[in-house]
Amino acid sequence: xxxxxxxxxxxxxxxxxxxxxxxxxxxxxxxxxxxxxxxxxxxxxxxxxxxxxxxxxxxxxxxxxxxxxxxxxxxxxxxxxxxxxxxxxxxxxxxxxxxxxxxxxxxxxxxxxxxxxxxxxxxxxxxxxxxxxxxxxxxxxxxxxxxxxxxxxxxxxxxxxxxxxxxxxxxxxxxxxxxxxxxxxxxxxxxxxxxxxxxxxxxxxxxxxxxxxxxxxxxxxxxxxxxxxxxxxxxxxxxxxxxxxxxxxxxxxxxxxxxxxxxxxxxxxxxxxxxxxxxxxxxxxxxxxxxxxxxxxxxxxxxxxxxxxxxxxxxxxxxxxxxxxxxxxxxxxxxxxxxxxxxxxxxxxxxxxxxxxxxxxxxxxxxxxxxxxxxxxxxxxxxxxxxxxxxxxxxxxxxxxxxxxxxxxxxxxxxxxxxxxxxxxxxxxxxxxxxxxxxxxxxxxxxxxxxxxxxxxxxxxxxxxxxxxxxxxxxxxxxxxxxxxxxxxxxxxxxxxxxxxxxxxxxxxxxxxxxxxxxxx
Length: 521
Description:
70% of the residues lie in helices and 0% in strands. It is built from 30 helices and no strands.
């Protein structure tokens, strides 16, 4: 058998070279047999890194990173394999450092294979082992823990466990700064920026993104890795209705050999292109389906990939005037982990299909339990405003609309104001008058909104109105239609106005189009 296929023999040769102070030979053996050793004898790699002198490490930055934390090497080093693999240690771990290393690298392997529940279990096991350790053991590994918390946070994040992920990333950032691990601090800040951007907490997202950017400038090596802060910054540009700029920024994000965020980045690019009008909804949905097929194992369990793709697919369907399909996707998403993404936009989709009771229920749920998720709270408040206006409660409608707009301006979430039809937004904006004098809102009121289709109504048309609608669909001037119905033109106009109001449209052609789509005529 070849030397490459015998990890035990390779490890023996490495230990012999180290014993004889032949460090160059040990390094060459380790680098040549990296994929085998990372799978079968992690200890041999650590032995090489631990035996090198400070001068030798200065000449070999990659090995310095190995020494600091082997789990990090699997991501950062140019020697990394093309996919993460699970280490199998020959002996039970003998120290806290070895235990954390084993649990962390196995968690990486599980996460990148789409086994998010297993990755979470391993991350929690690592945290429990750390909590159980004595002070001396913890002190001995403190300088390595920034990378550990970063990896554990990623496992929580991709399992859509936001609170645990944010806690782990904040700890990774603190330890990275404390022990001058700028790469870990940079990446943790980027992950925090992304987590807050997804929830719509604009101020927090921008602040963490700026920290990540500054750290990346002072730690050049991190610019070649994950750079989730770039993805978060692109989302923030799109939130401010600058999708073209978001796409340009996203194009600058480095590609990694193994990048967990590549699928959420793809989903976000679909959202940006939809808003920018760069592709048809059919093409964008095809791209999402193709990505799910190619990377099917990464969608097998509920997690950030599944949540991102379903959520954005629902927005695309809503833009394509298929709110029924959007409701179906968002209803399924609510059953998955991470369902907090669904309710606000689902309320808007329910409103679009005329399911007012369901829209009201979803909106109330969001207001009650999503106080810290502005991305869902803004649509929910808009839905409440529309329903209140429809019920004749102008005061309540104005309060809900003003709260939605204030929240959108505060967090830079103008894009979240597009989930009700333009006509509804204009009516509410005019009702608000001087109460909303922000120039961003005034600009928004003058432009056609992107996602919301004309609103359907749950009110049925009367037999006479259906008869009028059928005659309108037959074409001809109003005088001709009136003559066929044996009505005066003025009476016909009264019927037309009632029909347009019930269908949520503002003219004859849209009324006919909606009626045909809904099978009314």
